[in-house]
Amino acid sequence: RGLASGTDGESRLARLLREKFPRASTIKVVDISGGCGDMYEIHVESEEFREKRPVQQHRMVTQALSEEIKHMHGLRIFTSAPKG
Amino acid sequence: MRAALRAAWRIGTGAALRGHAGRPLSQAAGDGGGAEGGGGSGSREAVERLVREHPVVVFMKGSPAQPLCGFSNAVVQILRLHGVEDYRAHDVLQDPDLRQGIKNYSNWPTIPQVYLNGEFVGGCDILLQMHQNGDLVEELKKLGIRSALLDAEKDQEKK
């Protein structure tokens, strides 16, 4: 499925996110750069986001991935707290 | 006290203009955080002035007439949908100091960046979310801007 670099990037980012968001119920990372590894879509659902404004939630993600983001062309972020 | 600070700031600027590595503005003016090029376009002061220039300020790649990035284009299109055509847009591709300075200011790593009433609201994902859940209409209302979508709804109801 796509070039190796894309899949490696997805795994690496997902692993990083699992470390930074230990209470996450869902983490999904998708390479949307056609496998070039420089643009990603990031989905994180976690209790850690509850009661936080979207921009605060997104900032938690950008700070967790600050080093990685320096090498990215762009990224999309989708965050939420678990329902209920 | 204030006169001393003003004098110190002038010295700082002068040193920067003379090309000294010298005392960073942040020490002279007493603000926290790293100084950017001695009062240049990426400095905290310069960015602060820009974000307060207008109720709606966007830092993007390209211009509203010609966005140069899909995410920046998305912001322009969303604002257009709401009838917001009068806003300040800054093309960071034209100014590397501003491009870095705005990221430092908001502690946010990407462009575009949307500021409403001087406050950082988010990038294109957040603006899209706000558009979809109705928050953007509310935020615009707080700025005294009536979203065009409200009028569009009214037309629908009349039919």
From TrEMBL, chain A:
Domain of life: Eukaryota
This protein's UniProt keywords: Mitochondrion
Primary location: mitochondrion
Gene3D superfamilies, per database record: BolA-like (3.30.300.90)
Subcellular location: Mitochondrion
Annotated InterPro entries: BolA, BolA-like_sf, Mt_Fe-S_assembly_factor
Cellular component annotations (GO), alphabetically ordered: mitochondrial matrix
Assembly, per entry: Interacts with NFU1.
Task of the protein: Acts as a mitochondrial iron-sulfur (Fe-S) cluster assembly factor that facilitates (Fe-S) cluster insertion into a subset of mitochondrial proteins. Probably acts together with NFU1.
Family membership: Belongs to the BolA/IbaG family.
Identification of the protein by name: BolA-like protein 3
UniProt gene name: Bola3
TrEMBL record, chain B:
Annotated spans, Disordered: 21-45
Gene3D superfamilies registered for this protein in UniProt: Glutaredoxin
Domain of life: Eukaryota
InterPro entries: Glutaredoxin, GRX_PICOT-like, Monothiol_GRX-rel, Thioredoxin-like_sf
Start-end of Gly residues biased regions: 30-42
Alphabetical keyword list: 2Fe-2S, Iron, Iron-sulfur, Metal-binding, Redox-active center
Family annotation (PROSITE patterns): GLUTAREDOXIN_2 (PS51354)
Residue stretches in coiled coil: none
Keyword presence, Cell membrane: no
Molecular functions per Gene Ontology: 2 iron, 2 sulfur cluster binding; metal ion binding
Ranges for domain Glutaredoxin: 56-121
Cellular-component GO terms for this entry: mitochondrial matrix
NCBIfam families in the record: Grx4 family monothiol glutaredoxin (TIGR00365)
Name of the protein this chain belongs to: Glutaredoxin-related protein 5, mitochondrial
Originating organism: Spizella passerina
